[in-house]
Amino acid sequence: MKCFNIKNQRGSGMLLAFFTMMLLFTFGIMFLSAGSSSLMASKRDVLRARALACAEAGVDKGIQMLMAPGPDGQPGSYRTYHPSSNPDNHNGDTWYHNSIVPNEDFYVCVRNGTGINAGKVVITSKGVVTDSGATCTRTVKVVVRFAKENVNVWNNVIFGGVGQSGKSINGNVVMRGSIHLLGDGEDYTDVDGDGHWDDAEPYTDLNHNGRYDLGEPYIVVDGDGHRDAQAPFVDVNGNGTRDPALTVTDMAEEISGTANVGNNYDGMPSDLRALLPALPQVTWNGRTVDSLSAKLRVKHGKVNISGSATVGDPDVSGSTTKQTMDGTYVSDGFGGNKGTSSVYSDNGCSNGYDLGDGIVDMPVIDNGSVTVDGTIYSTYLNYLSQNALVYNGDLNINNGTAMTISGPKGSISIDSSGNMTISGIVYVTGDISFGPGKSRIIYQGNGTLVTPNSTDVHCDLVPKTNFPHNDTLGLICGDKINLATGSGDAHLTMAIAMYAQHKIVCAKQSDIAGTIVASYYEMSNVPRIYQVPDLATHLPPGMPGAAPIWIGTISIQSWQEVANP
Q1: How far apart are CA 160 and CA 181, in angstroms?
Q2: DSSP H or E stretch at residue 208
């Protein structure tokens, strides 16, 4: 039998308990230390995240300032002071500073890129956050490419306003350059405040006085419970009825057969091209090419493409001209038996109209007051008439018939050989015509002919030297311009800026360099029209809508976090 000595084991339980408590205490200290470290790391992570968010906010601010009009009034010119030739040396920089909230700041440097970033803009932004005595700074560098574009009506080959009969362009035409078709509805006065235009609802004229009298029976067309008279509207296109905006079922433009939209001067006759500046050059797919930087913009209405017609052309390796369009922006899409399969554009074919309402409108010359240099004129035509040589009656300008009209605000003369000189603005109260058919008038100088009525062109109109740097001719008509519509008229060659508030009609397969602006177009025999990019900044005097409308676009080329400067 074994005997246990109880006395010898006395105190062992206490020792075990002590070691257990020490172990628990040690683990507790370890967990507390780990928790404290995690808390501090978490705090640092939060500070770093907040600092990065501040730096990103600084980049956004830099982009915002780039997009806003700069010191020269145009977007893209904003820069901060960066004295060093080294883009990463910020000693002496004048940073743009802003506090988002107390203790959260950013500092922004916006400078021109150098080296591989030449031609780009570099935005460096520091985000600084302070919290409970701890400060964190993080810096990002973003390289962006800025592009600006003048979208006024004259920076196109064709600009179309309200359209007519559900179209902006009726007939096929070859267009080389940017096209901008609005298809907007004509403005009206909502007399009864029902949110839509009211036409004159039919009634029975019981007393035969030619107007509606209270009590006479009528038909409520719009279901509003009362008879509506015709609401006043601005008849921009002059067809006597109010035209609503084109819809997705309306054709803003229909091209087929040999018609197309292009981004170069392919097909232009050499004698016409010799009178124009060289096309701008851009880098495309690793090669230097001639380009019109052409874009197709259609706000309302569909573009139908059929047969062999195209918008842009497939890129041809090794070509010295750019075939694809720079962009298409068509809200109601493409139709026809080819549709999107015949659209060749750098941005695809699914982009809607990109300018929104009110940025670019059709300039109207016979309605609405204008203010020029502080003077208010009842209409733009009124402004032109008061700042021009005024000629009363019709003006016939013919090769073979010498003529001179001159005054302090404008002049025009032509000799018997068809050499014409023009300067300033000449306002004609009647119609204007150029002729005879199958002849040529060679003009020099910079001037504009204006009529509230119409102009007929039966002969060539070409500059003596270079259009538009040396010689420019403008036509402004309140009604319409007819090109080669006379009996016996032939193919025309022209370099000109043309505006007709109502419409422009072209009846022959003519070659026209410049820009045409109108509410509506009627084209026959597939004329060819070529944009001259320099025209928008070298317009003849008095052209409506001449002021530039600048928009900017930003594309981010690279983003990286860098060491704090």
Answers
A1: 4
A2: none
Cβ burial, residue 450 (10 Å; 0-12/13-18/19+): buried
DSSP state of 67: H
Number of domains in the chain: 3
Q: Indicate if 524 and 375 belong to the same structural domain.
A: yes
Do 201 and 74 share a structural domain?
no
Contact residues for 464 (Cβ-Cβ < 8 A; gap 6+): 419, 442, 443, 444, 470, 471
Indicate if 92 and 221 belong to the same structural domain: no
Query: Does 522 lie in the same domain as 405?
Result: yes
* Residues 334, 302 contacting (CB under 8 angstroms): yes
pTM attached to this predicted model? 0.81
Handedness of CA 263, 268, 273, 275 (dihedral sign): negative
**Residue 334: both structure tokens together:** 């493409």
Phi first, then psi, for residue 47 (nearest 5°) are -60, -45
Q: Is residue 459 part of a domain?
A: yes
Structure tokens at 341: 């399969």
112 lies in some domain: yes
Burial class (CB in 10 A: 0-12, 13-18, 19+), 272: buried
Distance between CA 412 and CA 471 in Å, rounded?
Answer: 13
Would you list the DSSP string of 100-128? EETTEEEEEEEEE--GGGTTSEEEEEEEE
Consecutive sets of 10 residues in the chain, 565 residues long: mean pLDDT of each? Answer: 49 65 66 56 83 96 92 87 87 94 95 91 96 92 94 97 73 94 66 55 62 63 61 56 52 75 96 98 93 96 90 94 97 92 95 93 95 96 98 98 97 98 99 98 99 98 98 98 94 98 95 97 94 98 97 92 93
Comparing CA positions, the residue from 174, 177, 183, 179 lying closest to residue 159 is 179
Say whether both 136 and 199 belong to one domain.
Answer: no
445 and 545 together in one domain: yes
Closest CA to 413 of 447, 457, 386, 450: 447
Q: Residue 465's domain spans which residues?
A: 365-549
